[in-house]
Every structure is written in C-alpha cells, then in structure tokens.
C-alpha cells in the first residue's frame, strides 16, 4: 500500500468536502463608489493583501474625485484650499497610520499607509505631514482646481454662507470674517448646534473594509472633509474608532457623515465593541447611530459594520437611505445595496 497516495487522497477529500467560504474575501465601502470597490476587489483577488486592496480602492476614488469631493480639488476651506484626511487601520496587528489636514499632496491614503508602514506613530497632521510625505517621495502640488476655486468664490460672494462659526461677531449667519469671540454673557449655549451642514449633496468620504481569504480584516478612509471648513479643521475620518476601526478577533466598522459631531461618539469603535459583546452587524451599527441620535437627532451620517464571518450591514440617520457598495465570493460582482434610515 502506497501511504503517499492514501495521504494525498485524504487531503483532497478534506479540501473537496470543506464548505467554500462564500463570504470572504469581502470588500465593502460607503456610498455607490463602485469603481473603488472594483479596484480593491481586483487587488485582493490578485495579491491577497487587504492593506494593498484598501490603498488601491481609496486611491481610485481620490483619482476620480468621487462625488466631486474625495481627493484633490474639493471641499475648499475658508481660504479656498483643499486639505485631506485619511486612515488605514490593520485589524491583524492593531497598527495604524493616519494623516489629518494634509496639504499639497494628492495621494492621502498612500501617505497614511506610509505612516503605518514606516513609522511607529499613528497620526501626522498639517504642513509637517506634508514634509513627511515629500520625504517619502510623494509629489507636492497645488490641490485646487478651477471648479474648487469657483466654488470658493461663490461662497465668498454669498457672504461666506454656510460656515462653521458660532458665538462670534460680526454675526456669522450673515457676514464673512474675520470674527472675534463675543463676550461670555452673550453666549447662547442652546443655539450652539443649529442645522446639519452635511447632507446628501455634501458627503465626501470613502470608508472601506476589506477581509482577505486568510480572515484578516483592515479598514481605511479617505476624504477632503467638510466644505468651507475653518482652516486647520480635521474630521473624524483619520481618527481611530471614529472614522474606522478593525480588530481581527471581532470585525470592523467604518463611518461617514458629519465628522465634527460623529467623532465625539467614536461610532466605529462602539460598533466593533457591540459585535464583541455578541451583536450582529445590523444591531451593532444601529446602536452606534442611536448613541449619536440621542444627543443630535438631526445629524447626518452612517456606519457600516462587518463581522469576521463576513456578515455585513449598516445603519444611518439624517437621510432617507444610505447606499453602500459590496462584493464577496458569493456576489462575484460589485453591488450597491441600501439600508433605510
Ligand atoms: C468629515 N466624515 O470630514 C467626513 C465627511 C463625510 O459624509 O463623511 N461626509 O467630517
């Protein structure tokens, strides 16, 4: 009896009888940014590396300026400049890299990946993040486009409306700055958060989760943030636990929406922790959204949650429905799915 033949047949038998895992690899991301999903899917199938897949997917959106706003030439700040935020979070190693308020460098998700891979830091910001990027070989260039300059001029001509100021004079609801703080006794704390400035026509973030076929999970984000932000503003997207979070022992979650409000509640971290306590993704995402709704009933945003079985879902607020793009072994093709809010 040839024991080699018996052994090989045994291995073959095991392989044929094991169920094919239909749920992984998996790529899922915010909004109907399907070309980004497609790019990440191609990468995960060819190179089996989820960080590479996230970089490829988010880079695609940065190049396409998804929704006119991810990447360069979108969301000009009060000075007319576009600045970028991004995060890459590896759930296998619990290592991360992020950049906030990156100026004059287009490839923000790749810069975040360089922070992860070539430093022991987690987050670099502003001009000095640019210096780091240039040192790593990235090109420094103007991120404005004719469109972003035009958008900024129109905002200026419209008395700088909307803007993100409060408790300052002149009245920010009717005039441009420069502003000065009003006196302590005139501050009306009830007036503080009036209307959401984010809505279905002003959302700017690709947030993506990838699980590879080794069951490793990673998450990433890339955005140019909020239109007409005060220069120096950094949103939720590069903040771990806010814009994205991943942990191989549980799953991952990502967020999009009004980052100034959302980052106060760390919704991605909360969704992952709820899954750790045994919740399915749908309920975990809903709990994270509800936590914010309790204090900001009108806030605009959404959370996607995925567990290590590859089960996924989302929850949202402030819009009718939230679309997301997903592909796995079972679906084979990128599909846009939706949850109602
Ligand atoms: C930010 N969360 O900078 C981003 C923007 C966004 O839908 O996702 N809008 O606040």
UniProtKB/TrEMBL annotation:
Q: Which reaction does it catalyse?
A: N(4)-(beta-N-acetyl-D-glucosaminyl)-L-asparagine + H2O = N-acetyl-beta-D-glucosaminylamine + L-aspartate + H(+)
Q: Which residues form the signal peptide?
A: 1-22
What GO cellular component entries does it have?
A: lysosome
Task: Show which residues form the site (Cleavage).
Answer: 204-205
Highest taxon of source:
Eukaryota
Which EC class heads this enzyme's classification? Answer: hydrolase
Enumerate the UniProt keywords alphabetically: Autocatalytic cleavage, Hydrolase, Protease, Signal
Give its E.C. classification number.
Answer: 3.5.1.26
Set out the biological process GO terms recorded for this chain's protein. Answer: proteolysis
Active site as annotated: 205
Q: Which GO terms describe its molecular function?
A: N4-(beta-N-acetylglucosaminyl)-L-asparaginase activity; peptidase activity
Positions with a binding annotation for substrate: 233-236, 256-259
- Which family is it part of? Belongs to the Ntn-hydrolase family.
Q: What does this protein do?
A: Cleaves the GlcNAc-Asn bond which joins oligosaccharides to the peptide of asparagine-linked glycoproteins.
Q: What is the name of this protein? A: N(4)-(beta-N-acetylglucosaminyl)-L-asparaginase
Record lineage: Eukaryota, Metazoa, Ecdysozoa, Arthropoda, Hexapoda
């Amino acid at each position: 009896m040839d024991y080699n033949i018996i052994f090989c047949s045994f291995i073959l038998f095991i392989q044929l009888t094991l169920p094919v895992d239909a749920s992984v690899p998996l790529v899922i991301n915010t909004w109907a940014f399907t070309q980004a999903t497609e790019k990440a899917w191609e990468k995960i199938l060819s190179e089996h590396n989820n960080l590479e897949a996230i970089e490829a997917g988010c880079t695609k959106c940065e190049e396409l300026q998804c929704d006119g706003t991810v990447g360069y030439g979108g969301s000009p700040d009060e000075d007319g400049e576009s600045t970028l935020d991004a995060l890459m979070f590896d759930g296998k190693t619990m290592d991360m890299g992020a950049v906030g308020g990156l100026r004059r460098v287009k490839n923000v998700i790749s810069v975040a990946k360089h922070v992860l891979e070539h430093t022991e830091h987690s987050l670099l910001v502003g001009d000095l993040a640019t210096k780091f990027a240039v040192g790593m070989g990235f090109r420094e260039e103007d991120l404005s486009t004719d469109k972003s300059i035009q958008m900024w001029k129109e905002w200026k001509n419209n008395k700088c409306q909307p803007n993100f100021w409060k408790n300052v004079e002149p009245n920010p609801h009717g005039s441009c700055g420069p502003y000065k703080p009003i006196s302590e006794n005139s501050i009306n704390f009830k007036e503080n958060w009036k209307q959401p400035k984010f809505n279905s026509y002003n959302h700017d973030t690709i947030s993506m989760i990838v699980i590879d076929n080794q069951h490793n999970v990673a998450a990433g984000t890339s955005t140019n943030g909020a239109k007409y932000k005060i220069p120096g503003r950094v949103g939720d997207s590069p903040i771990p636990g806010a814009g994205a979070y991943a942990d191989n022992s549980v799953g991952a979650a990502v967020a999009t929406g009004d980052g100034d409000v959302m980052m106060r509640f760390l919704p991605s971290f909360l969704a992952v922790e709820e899954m750790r306590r045994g919740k399915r993704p749908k309920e975990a995402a809903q709990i994270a959204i509800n936590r914010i709704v309790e204090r900001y009933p009108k806030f605009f945003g959404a959370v996607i949650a995925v567990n290590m079985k590859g089960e996924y879902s989302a929850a949202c607020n402030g819009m009718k429905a939230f679309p997301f793009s997903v592909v796995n072994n079972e679906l084979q093709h990128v599909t846009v799915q939706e949850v109602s809010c």
